[in-house]
TrEMBL record, chains A, B:
The lineage of its organism: Bacteria, Bacillati, Actinomycetota, Actinomycetes, Micromonosporales. This is Rrf2 family protein. GO terms for cellular component: cytosol. PANTHER family: TRANSCRIPTIONAL REGULATOR-RELATED, WINGED HELIX-TURN-HELIX TRANSCRIPTIONAL REGULATOR, RRF2 FAMILY. GO terms for molecular function: DNA-binding transcription factor activity. InterPro entries: Tscrpt_reg_Rrf2, WH-like_DNA-bd_sf, WH_DNA-bd_sf. It comes from the Bacteria. PROSITE patterns: HTH_RRF2_2.
Amino acid sequence: MSGGVEWALHCCTLLSRASQPVPAVKLAEYHDVSPSYLAKQLQLMSRAGLVRSTQGNAGGYVLTRDAAAITVLDVVEAIDGVLPAFRCTEVRQRGPLATPAEQCADPCAIAKVMDSADRAWRDSLRAVTIADLVADADRQILPGAVERARAWLAS
Amino acid sequence: MSGGVEWALHCCTLLSRASQPVPAVKLAEYHDVSPSYLAKQLQLMSRAGLVRSTQGNAGGYVLTRDAAAITVLDVVEAIDGVLPAFRCTEVRQRGPLATPAEQCADPCAIAKVMDSADRAWRDSLRAVTIADLVADADRQILPGAVERARAWLAS
DNA sequence: AGCACTCGGATATATCTTATCCAAGTAGCT
DNA sequence: AGCTACTTGGATAAGATATATCCGAGTGCT
Ligand code: SF4
Ligand code: SF4
């Protein structure tokens, strides 16, 4: 999995707190990561329709919908794509004892297992929203931290 | 995920049928894949203790235990390693509003979600054994194919 | 002891991820 | 309306990982 997924999720939680547009440079500075590279992740999220960008002065990124309506899977798929990790190359149709193609209409057991595991993984990620992440973070952080973050974003 | 996982699984099903040691070259020819690269996967499986190699004339690879005692997860972890796909870099401890380290004893919600999804994925793969794959394949292939495969391996 | 055959690890190549830069575009100000 | 300052967007290098290959070490058989 791309390391950029972690950055993207952190940005989502931060954006859910800020009501004003936040530029990419500010998001990068807040998390102390490469601004140029974070910009790429934000572009991917923009294409996926998770965030909306406004250019020009006082522009930046805003979430397109409520944090409770964005799942972790949405972010992961925006960054890493939607194709499953396992890519079957139809080995059974090759070699000296190749299975004839008409016998390969149904996916074999290996493909089924991999597909099932991939689905379980995605179901797990789909069960949690950005709002859940924020709620959990609020429970752990020190009191007043949210206000300080908002003030820093506005400066 | 490594593409070699698919090859490794196919080799396991084939090895479970052959009672004699099968050399890497023969396994590669059977599946029509690169012999040099398949050798690497077999080495990884050997290190993981899934197969045992015997050198010299009439040598090759044999499964170390019954096919029912080898899970798909065993093979996947042998090839791709055991580390989870998501690698947390502790972003929350960086930047101008970094969370103090003593506040970060427990993993955050993001890390928990990723860990949970990874566990669900592994549980899915652990639930199926090589014996299950073979049984499913036997149900789909043409009658006599198993005997032909055994004969080809012996030649 | 000699020989043919096999595995094992060290070595190139290709592909993808990571990181960066500069040009196009937009909103607000004069 | 024109200008300026700011921000995004896609195109472009550097690095890391996965893929593919080769030859030497080791083993059993003759
Ligand atoms: S469908 Fe199954 S048997 Fe065919 S190549 Fe893919 S993993 Fe192998
Ligand atoms: S533990 Fe959670 S908050 Fe900390 S860096 Fe990892 S993902 Fe981010």
